[in-house]
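Collaborator request, handled under Task 6.
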Amino acid sequence: MRVIDMVKNLELLGYGYFISDTLSEKSTARFSNCYEIELYTTSNGTSFIDNKQLPHSKGNILIIKPDQQRQSIGLFECHFVHFYCLDEHFSKKYLDVLPQLIKNCDTIKFSILFNAITDAATNKQNGYELYVTAKLIELIAELYTISENYKAKDSRFSIYTFNIYEATTFMQNNLSSHITLADIAKIANLSPSYFHTAFKNIVGTTPHRYLLNIRLKTAQKFLLNSKKTLAEIAEECGFESQVYLNYIFKKELSITPKHYRDTEKVIII
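Structure tokens returned to the collaborator:
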């Protein structure tokens, strides 16, 4: 699809930062006529989507779709964007598949996106429509990637997709460190035992196996694409020693790191 088509097919209706005033009574029920995405910055209040109760928590992202009934109660604050999608194919593929709620998102990262949309739409400088559309697509892409890459097999865990995404990102960024299950579970804001269960359900393997796999893949990349010594590779990939790297490599791949480097094609010298 051409960029100009996306500018036409995504129409921003509302944006900004909302502060509620419905302390003790539910707001009047209304049906949404568009897509509404909200990022909560406080842990107060509750939304009711088609009468389902969804308590607010800082970092939660709520995704409301056309024709859903909604109400809210309590004092809370959130970033929001409301928009039409005039392209049925796009909405079915990228919007309608999104979960109702994604918990514990990176508040800073997503606040930057919401603020960028709000600032551009408010200031209306030359080319702002294109910029707003780009940022809106970026927001949708972030949420879609999370929902597609971390689909829960059991619906009970579907709200924790972003938690698991954050955990895998943490592992990838900290390979050289000694990482425990408790460390990773803390990043996901879940107890170690529940995190282990949710992770296996969503990713399809245990946290330990996932971490081992990315350490092995990174070691393979270094062996082929660098002149790092085996000791350096072992350290950077989080293996306890060169001896342990050799042991794991031979156990998992039936070949030593040295033999792998000597026999496989070197991509970058």
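The cover message to the collaborator said: "DSSP finds eleven helices and nine strands in the chain. The chain has a mean pLDDT of 89. Please let us know whether this matches your experimental observations."
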